[in-house]
Structure formats: C-alpha cells, structure tokens
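My main concern about presentation is that the manuscript never shows what a single data entry looks like. In essence, backbone conformation is discretised, so a fold becomes a row of integers matching the chain in length. An entry of this sort, consisting of the sequence and the corresponding backbone structure tokens, reads as follows:
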Amino acid sequence: MRADGGGIILPSGLLNVDLYSRMHDFGAREGATGTAQYADDGSLTSYEVASGDYNDAILDRFCVGFYYLDALNSVRRGRASSVHPTPQVYPPDLHVGDTLNLSPYTITTVGDVNGEVFAYETSFTLPPQR
C-alpha cells in the first residue's frame, strides 16, 4: 500500500475491506496499552484508549497506517475521510476511554471522542454495516 493511503478505497468508491483482514494485535506497548476487543470470529472490533496512549503507537500495535484507522473511524470520530463542515486532516485528540473502531463492518456503530458520538458522512462507500 502507498503511504498516501492508495488501495484503501477501490475505484468503485467502496472501502477495500480485504485490507482489514490483515490487521493483527501485536500486543500492548508503550503508548498503546489499551484494551483490544474481538468478534466471535477472532477479528478485531475495537480498541479502548488508555492513559498515555498516542496515535503512532496504536498504529504500530495493530500494524496499520494512518489512512486505515482514519477510514474506520470516519463516521463516529470524524477524520480526514469524513465529510463535515470543519474537516480536519489530523485525527481528533485521544482521551482515556475513547473507543476506536477496528472493523470495516462497524464504522457506523463503534467509536467515540471523549464520550461523544458523531455521525459524519464519508467520502467513500461503506460496506454492509452491523
């Protein structure tokens, strides 16, 4: 995958869910000590931010790039892939207890920023949501 996020959105405009099947939790580390949650099938579903966590360490823990996490959290947290009045290129600040979505199938149902849930539109087509 290119550093600019190439390949995350297919030419059809649909989110490329195959890329997310490769995501794996490589374990807690400095700056990413929160709790990962899993679906019954063993796939990652979410991550709860702990004190001292920061974005780069979380990306490293799950071996994903900025644009991966950006797309997964574009609806409920607001990201560069969101369509809203004040688009932000940088992710919102992390707060202890924030939930980061890690599944392409729960983009509209998992995630928050400091306890607040948003409902932004995306610049891409979502896969079926649960």
Q: What stands out?
A: The chain has a mean pLDDT of 87. Strands lie at 35-38, 44-48, 82-83, 99-101, 121-122. The CA atoms of residues 73 and 101 lie 6 Å apart. Helices lie at 55-62, 66-72, 74-78.
